[in-house]
Amino acid sequence: MQMSAMASDLPDARGHFGPYGGVFVAETLMAALDELRREYEAARQDPDFQAEFRHELRHYVGRPSPIYHARRWSEKLGGAQIYLKREDLNHTGAHKINNTIGQALLARRMGKKRVIAETGAGQHGVASATVAARYGMECVVYMGADDIQRQSPNVYRMKLLGATVVGVESGSRTLKDALNEAMRDWVTNVESTFYILGTAAGPHPYPMLVRDFQCVIGEECKVQMNEMLGRQPDAVIACVGGGSNAIGIFHPYIPVEGVRLIGVEAGGHGIASGQHAAPLNAGTPGVLHGFRSYLMQDANGQVIETHSVSAGLDYPGVGPEHSYLKDIGRAEYVAINDDEALAAFHDLCRYEGIIPALESSHALAHAVKIAPDMDKDRILLVNLSGRGDKDINTVARLAGIEL
Amino acid sequence: MSRIASTFSTLKSANRKALIPFITAGDPAPDRTVPLMRALVAGGADILELGVPFSDPMADGPTIQRSSERALKHRVGLKDVLAMTAEFRQTDATTPVVLMGYANPIEAMGWDAFCAAAKAAGVDGVLTVDYPPEESDEFAARCAAAGLDNIYLLAPTTPEARVAAITRQARGFVYYVSLKGVTGAANLDLDEVAARVGMIRASAGLPVGVGFGISDAETARKVADVADAVVIGSRIVREIEQSAPESMLDNVRNFVAGVRAALDR
Q1: What is the mean pLDDT of chain B?
Q2: Is the Cβ–Cβ distance between A227 and A83 less than 8 Å?
Q3: In which element (H, E) is residue B101 found?
Q4: What spatial distance separates the first Cα and last Cα of chain B, rounded to whole Å?
Q5: How far is CA A243 from CA A59, A214, A249, A262, B233, in A?
Q6: For residue B66, what is the nearest residue in chain A, using CA coordinates?
Q7: Looking at the 3D structure of chain B, how many domains does it have?
Q8: Residue A3 above 60 pLDDT?
């Protein structure tokens, strides 16, 4: 308990969560990160900034998002009651918008007229393009060339919103390479440009500020659970790629005793197959993209390619705060394979009339695993981080259907 | 005196500037690296910068990214780079070798194991792009204990007070990144370089090398007027990339010799 109370005060002044986090970037970016840290500290203390952020979340995003009791599905599973935090009902269909609004307001405060972003599945790219349109900023989104092929509807969405989408041909041509390229753009255009990083990772202060903007999820849950049930859940479950939706719902619960925090990584074809995206389950600490954390790497320290059915979880690293919560034992991290996630995806469609994102389906699938062995008065709160409309082509293809 | 310090001191007494070419170890193939290192020296290099391939070279432009990818196709890792350095040392006991790369391969090997192996292989300096001083004081202490010079980057955006703090921790020389951008970019502002290098020199008490974006002999010459050393990377890597296998060593040596002649003019 002592440790958990302290854990919610991190990172320290230099961006460390225990041995994780930090600022591992070339000297060229140090001044920009320092400026960002100072501006964010000021914005954090500024009631006007906070009021505008809350106003935007309410009127533009549609917050607070409801918590929904998945009664029919819980009955089918025959154990714990499953409640869903409905981030899928947000404008743009996922939790990503909470963060992009916060960062865009910060960009405006800093007088930056151009924003850049990296994206994998395209959700963060769409959320960035959305806020850039909303606040009248130029927006460039970096996306791996392979992901552009796989996620063409989101590419078109970004273009409709006025963004320029740049295909990245280097490396594995996926999310991690898009992040490299966004960093290279930032280094080159550092004075005019704000980098809207999409997850609670990257160099300090990004893991902290993304977490703070996403904490609205968990803060709402604490109030809503109390109003609905007069108690807090027995466990909170969220999927973890970079880990922003998970840290957003976990962080407010860190000091709350009796609430288990369970992060669900992408097990892909199974941990034993090596084809997965589960650094907290099967990786080792390393340095990538400006921070130290658990990482999927080979014996030479080269980052290895990941696999997940869900593009949003297909990332070899994980936000540093998750690594810390794992090491101190405050959160547990498990892995769910592609086929288990797909089964949960179909379950939620059929039993609750909700099409979940494949990312969120990993969290749902873990509820499927543990709910049946729990008493019926136990409560699982699952973060339904996004809606699955973007995934219907993937799901159809896996079923051998061409849309 | 370290090999780097004695190289700079010899050059200074001859009123010459150091030429520091960069190649990526293992590019285009592992057995080409030592011959390329010798060709660079034959062309007039004073210090060699040897890139350690990394899967995610965030600070590098497309040319050096591609060189890293070519080396990684041959699975060249940090241990192989140290073995190449040791082989080079068998025939060259004087030319300093600086490893340039990213933190993770070093972390994967472990700081102590790396420092011991690098020293044993004949490495003289280590420049780790994503180890700013804030994150590398322990690593720097181990480098110093092993007799390796820890070389830091300074950028156009580095505030003056920070320049002083970094140069206090630096050994060997400091490396001024001459532009806002990645390696191989083309937006070098010579006046700004001159002003910044003057300020750094006044604070450093160490030689100042300048690199990123220097791609021809004439620019190298102008940079050398204000700096102690000129680093050329992407341009040489491009020579390697575009040469036929049989003429690669000659082309690289000739290019370096051309820059050498301009520096000594």
Answers
A1: 95
A2: no
A3: strand B97-101
A4: 29
A5: 26, 10, 10, 12, 37
A6: A170
A7: 1
A8: no
ipTM over 0.85: yes
Q: Is B60 a catalytic site residue?
A: yes
Measured between beta carbons, the chain B residues lying within 8 angstroms of A304 are: 55
Catalytic annotation, pick one of A87, A118, A340, A352: A118
- What would the pLDDT profile of A113-144 be if each residue is shown by its tens digit? 999 999 988 999 999 999 999 999 999 999 99
- CA-nearest residue of chain A to B60? A184
The structure's pTM equals 0.96
Provide the residue type at A96 as one letter: K
Phi-psi category of A258—alpha, beta or left, where left has phi over 0 and alpha has psi -120 to 50? left
> Distance of alpha carbon A277 from its chain centroid, rounded?
14
- R_g (Cα) of chain A, nearest Å: 19
Catalytic residue among A39, A65, A85, A96: A96
Quick one: A250 exposed, middle or buried, by C-beta within 10 A (0-12, 13-18, 19+)?
buried
Domain that holds residue B228: 3-264
Contacts with A54 (C-beta within 8 Å, 6 or more apart), sequence order: none
User: How confident is the model over A261-288, as pLDDT tens digits?
Assistant: 999 999 999 999 999 999 999 999 999 9
Surface-to-core class of residue B44, CB atoms within 10 Å of its CB (0-12 exposed, 13-18 middle, 19+ buried)? middle
For the domain that residue B158 is a member of, what is the CATH number? Answer: 3.20.20.70
